[in-house]
Amino acid sequence: MNLKNIDLNLLVYLDVLLRTRNVTHAAESMGISQPAMSNGLRRLRTLFSDPLLIRTKDGMNPTERAEELQPLIRKIVADVEMAVEPDKGFDPATADRVFRLSFSDYSECTLMPPLLRRMDTIAPNVTLDILTPSDVSYKDVEGGNVDLVINRFDDLPQSFHQRTIWRDDFSCMISRQNPIRDNFDLTSYLEANHVWVSKTGMGIGVGVEPGALQQLGWVDDVLAHLGKKRKIRVYTRHYQAAMQLAELPDLVITLPSKSARLQKDNPDVIILPPPFEIPEIELKMAWSPLVQHNPAHQWLRGLIAEVASELD
Q1: pTM (2 decimals)?
Q2: For residue 258, what are the contacts with CB-CB under 8 A and spacing of at least 6?
Q3: For residues 306 and 302, what is the distance between their CA atoms, to the nearest angstrom?
Q4: 17 near 30, Cβ under 8 Å?
Q5: Which neighbouring-strand residues pair with 174?
Q6: Residue 209 β-bridge partners
Q7: CA distance 205 to 208
Q8: Residue 182 DSSP class
Q9: In a designed cystine with 296, which of 87, 90, 197, 306 is the match (CB 3.0 to 4.6 A)?
Q10: What is the largest CA-CA distance in the chain?
């Protein structure tokens, strides 16, 4: 098929259709009529010799061919938009805009305070809208509805860009009144009651099954390899709550060291190294190729990386 015979506007239609999966919403997004968008879909089906979107009881669902095409079409449209859009640059001192970010609780409680202190002086009118990972799916990020995700990832879509923020080891927090403070070894650790605190995955809001060790994460994985298991009294996704629970005299909290150091001046708790070795974790930021070359996003990513490098 000769490229000159293809209406390239159809690729823009397909990009919007695959994001909205709704002909009416796609037409509204493009500022055209619903019949015009329906006609565009018919032409796309002819062009690709595939239905692309099929109506089901759950709405319009993409075919296998459409799912294969989606990242390719996204990249083509994004590259064209970048090529024709004038580069106006980004001035944080005068910018008045909102960035929508998804932070894990761990990254929010450690990174947000120094980030905001820096932004107060260099970008006073820039606002951050922070979402939890369970509020966001990879499709939200891929489509540009969420500007940036900061978390620990087991895997990411291949189309995403990513950058490591930092690596962190682990510490234990206990109350100064906890009787194991003077004999903190693996035996006393296992005899104590514990608070489990860990990440929430993207688009996930489900509970923990205490017997499912493979779902409990790094600390319990290491203990399982040692043939040990700790007694968990509380499961939480909130690091601030876990750190407050450390003040109780009968609990042990094992968490990343950068979080633990937020309580270094708390006279009611003690921070100790774990009595066994736990591998480091890696915190990353990830973003869609749609915003890779956007000057405002480049500024924000650079600022976050700079602040993170100074956090130690």
Answers
A1: 0.68
A2: 110, 166, 168, 311, 312
A3: 6
A4: no
A5: 270
A6: none
A7: 10
A8: G
A9: 90
A10: 79
Q: Which residues, in sequence order, are CB contacts of 111 under 8 Å at separation 6+? A: 103, 150, 165, 304, 307, 308, 311
Which positions ≥6 away from 65 have C-beta within 8 Å? Answer: 48, 50, 52
Tokens 């017997």 belong to which residue?
211
What is d(CA 13, CA 30) in angstroms, rounded to the nearest whole number?
8
What domains does the chain contain, in order, with CATH numbers? 3-84 (1.10.10.10), 98-167+282-309 (3.40.190.10), 170-279 (3.40.190.10)
Phi, psi of 253 (to 5 degrees): -115, 125
Q: How confident is the model at residue 284 (pLDDT cuts 50, 70, 90)?
A: very high
Burial of 238 (0-12, 13-18, 19+ CB in 10 A): middle
Backbone angles phi, psi at 159, to 5 degrees: -75, -15
Summarize pLDDT for 35-91 with one digit per residue, the tens: 999 999 999 999 999 999 998 887 889 999 999 998 888 888 877 877 776 666 789
Question: For residues 184 and 145, which has the higher predicted lDDT (pLDDT)?
Answer: 184
Give the Cα separation of 150 and 215 in Å (integer).
Answer: 21
Examine the pLDDT at 174 and tell me if it is beyond 80: yes
Dihedral, 76, 77, 83, 86 alpha carbons, nearest 10: -160
Backbone angles phi, psi at 3, to 5 degrees: -60, -30
**Residue 143 binned pLDDT confidence (cut-offs 50, 70, 90):** confident
